[in-house]
Design a protein that fits this description.
201 residues, alpha+beta, 9-stranded antiparallel beta sheet, 33% strand, globular
Length: 201
Amino acid sequence: MFEVRKSIKRFRDDPAWTYRKQGRDYLDTFDRRGYPFSLGPDGLALRHLLQGSFRGREVSLFHLLAWQRSGKANVAWTYSVVVLPLPRVLPATALTSRRLASSRVEKIPALNRVTGRGRDLPGLGTHLVRYCADEPDFAALISTHALERLMHKARLGWRIEGDRMIGWTYGRRTYEELLSLAETVAAIIEGFPEQAWQWPE
């Protein structure tokens, strides 16, 4: 916890980054029925929003408090989140490392089932990653063993929402660790085959 506080101070004091302790307006731009936001059905709070440029890409980094009622109390689960822009809008797709799975996560859909056709794809890929997509053919196009191994190693989940990718992991990580997570998400984006950027054809 102390390392996280020191990390926040280092980035907050760096003029290359824009810092806000809270970011309700930014939080409101996300679809709350998709991971990781759907994991807080009883309330959400965004903390320590940092925005800037990392290796030529815009990036947003923050901690997400996701509340869920447990018995008579509300329990806050914490997630570390990175958001990177995509060159264009792509089909709603969510991949979740099995290392993030829990009975609580398993019960909540990865994508918004109200606004889309998102469905689980248990026959796609390996046991390392869970797939959910509006367009199964698109999910199959970007699925590779290298992608799954990368996600498994990083304990990473990610979701495409319009023209941005949301990467997330469990816990309150330092911002150096969040930058490492952003680097992994950027590598995933760069690893998409050329056909993905022409979708559909």
